[in-house]
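Just curious: can you write whichever protein you like plus the matching structure tokens?

***
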Amino acid sequence: MKKFSAVMATSLVACAATLVAVPAAHAGDGGSRSRTETLLEGGKVYALYEHMSARFHPKDVTLKIHAPDDTKVLASLRLDGTETCPDTGDCYEDTFRSGPVTLPAMGAYVIDVVAREGQPNEVVQRSTGFLNYGLNPRLTLSSNHPRISYDHSSLEISGSLVAEDPNTHEVKPFAGVGMYYRARESRGEGWVWTDATGRFTSDAYFNERSTDTTYEYMFDQQHESLKLPFHQQALNLKVDAPSGTVTAPYGSDIPVRGKLTRIADDGTEKPLAAEVNIGTDATVQSGENGTFSTRYTVKQGGQVSIRPTAWNWFTAPTPHTFTLAAPPRTSALSNVEAEVSKYRKVTFTGKLGVTRGSYPKGATTKVSIDHRPEGGTWSSTGTFDAAYGASFTASSPKKADAGGHWRLRLVNADVNGSSSKLGRTYTRVWNDGVTPEGVRKGATVTAKGGLMRKSGSTWRPYGGQKIRVWFKAATSGSAWKELGSTKTLGDGTFSRKFTARQDGTWQMRYTDTDASHYADHGREDYVDVR
């Protein structure tokens, strides 16, 4: 008796085996299924049977061979050696060979197990294994690239299977047969089937955590393996700046520039997009062209290392290092001025420098525009980068109020600029509109409304001010244009007549302010001209 092969055990997955229901007069096995596979010995083909049932005896078994797509039985085989199994024993997991098999043509066939055939307690087990009818199979393997790498994280493994036709003894492609494969290192496994030319392909996928991987393909007693070594490509790091010893003010940002490349499988140097570490707490991502550019904030002296984040696809290059001298607290702002526009936009101008010493070329620092309302606390409204030795102009994204406090602050240098109180008086265009809203072309319409300004918590009429009347036609692509202007009366009201010429939107705007008042605009009012 022969031990059953591991391939045969696995082959059951591909057999879609099921216990076939039989008429009520027949007793089903109800237990474990038997297993079958192909055995080649002495230039002949046999079926090998493993007994897995306690419900019937091996001597009761007949193997029925048929094509995968046809239930017509092409061969019925009895088992040899069943006399060694006692009538009172179950011979569980013992294996038995059939007699020699003769079939019409070389190919893959399905083996059904029938026990006590034709008797009331007959048991039928379908698709218990394959009978691969061919002699001296020869399996060859190859891949579309000889190793696993960053350039080849997916590979196509292909092969061919030929065998000798048992009937004609011609060696030809073994078509339509399945074989099991596995890769122990990646815990991958599966089945492939040969095509009409005896060839097959399977895809293999890898990642940076992969290792040398061996694929084993098994066809009956034929085993072949293909080793795919894991190749780490060489990684090159070139840093243009900084280098040597750098002296920079405390809290300044010094430029860091460089490039990351790799030696590809074809031997050429190619750029790499990857993460680069700067010191212990800063990173930058190189672009598709391999270059990276960022800034490093100077907080203390010492050696700083620049190196790519560990990535197992690549060998680690030698880190680039530079030395920071103990940073002096010399950053300073000068010539700072602040203003608020009529549209509530706060803008600062000034210059960033040092009180003594020098700074590296291209050094910058982050500057915050801070705001504090009356009775409140300071908060940042936004930041910008200022260059040492250069003038700057920067505006806050936050609109000004009637009289809050504003300042500049060097975020990383712990330097606060002087505070400025900025603000204007609020104004409001109110009760505005154009009447009538539905008119004929050429008719007269009146643009009117009122203007107020805020005094403390009270709104008061604001007379003697210029109000501009704007219009935008309803036609596509039209732009706003000014039609005319008027002045507010002592009670703050205003009005002006116009001739209605086309559909469109009207708006009254107060923009001719003095330095102490904010501008305002009214609502958009659509007028239909028929």
